[in-house]
Amino acid sequence: xxxxINWLANILSNASWWGLPVEPAASVIVWAVYGFILALVVxxxxxxxxxxxxxxxxxxxQDRIGPNxxxxxxxxxxxxxxxxxxxxxxxxxLGADRIPFNIGPGLAAVASILIFAVxxxxxxxxxxxxxxxxxxVVAVGAFSILxxxxxxxxxxxxxxxxxxxxxxxxxxxxxxxxxIALITVAVVAGSMSTLTITENQTLASxxxxxxxxxxxxxxFFLASVAEVGRSPFDLLxxxxxxxxxxxxxxxxxxxxxFMISEYVHALAVAALSxxxxxxxxxxxxxxxxxxxxxxxxxxxxxxxYLLKMGIFIFIxxxxxxxxxxxxxxxxxxxxxxxxxxxxxxxxxxMAFIVRLFQPGNVSMGAEIPAGPLASWGGIxxxxxxxxxxxxxxFLTTLVVRAFARRSRARGFRAIAAIEx
Length: 420
Prior knowledge:
Distance between the termini: 79 Å
Strand content: under 5%
Low-confidence stretches: none
Number of helices: 15
Helix content: over 70%
Mean pLDDT: 81
Strand order of the largest sheet: 1-2
Shape: globular
Radius of gyration: 24 Å
């Protein structure tokens, strides 16, 4: 990238009509083209590949063959579907509000792509290292909710409106535990920078956060899948109930933008999960490879990153092929009555453990004393967090079981009263 910027800077320096500073202008132009390529090439290709992959994986789960006619292993089937989708007629309902109707799909797709701007995908390869990277992810993720609401509201269709209302209730509900889980990771890492969080997950610092905070990972991953709207949380587009939901009036390219939004958002969730809980590009031999050759070390780290993303992508597809869809009341109860209070308790427990193991330092001119267990180091903190997470899961299981027994008892009493 630096060589391309230098090449363009040399061209601009020889142009007599160019009056702006050469180096910054070349950098801005190159990164703008880079972002344009990512948005218009990588995102559609990711949707095509993930569509084919999901069909084959779910077919194997359900004892089917899946696409196998168009091209080797049926890979051209996804290409054919993409061409068909992009060439269909673009229809706008007569009663629709045209401006938000046309803006909604693009807003949902762009929101999914923007998340990758702060994700370190390899050593030395990151769009921008923001000190508030996690806050940026939360802010950008809210754009997709706005796009879905605009699309459903402006379609002048009761099913689309109902899907938009479901979207707001579901996505806002699961945004709360997801944000609390992100805060927990930031508290443990001591930073909201995704690059710092990745670099902190080395063996010397205590290892990957998925081993230290499995409960935090579980809360974050389930809430993220629900926010994407994939099975079993796909109440936004429940075709058996509300005829495809908020995008029922869309066709052609606009419907394709919604599909791109879903699959790229799922890819972003997998990438963010790998960054926050599996150490990102960290892996065996990466540090040594980077020291020997930055290029090949970056390639090795990128391969590790793709493998970790693939694990989470497979889990989401596994969910879709095996789990039934929730009812809307079950969905909201699971978010508000279980995940939200559990994430709050988990945040308090993890923050307390971090304080116990915190080394002494000076912050904003004030000296912070070391915690009583600071001498135990990162490994001791990881083990303590793991034990605390297991205890929280055990206590949560007991509480849920008690509430389930009480609910069943009320149901039996109601049935007995009706029979009598």
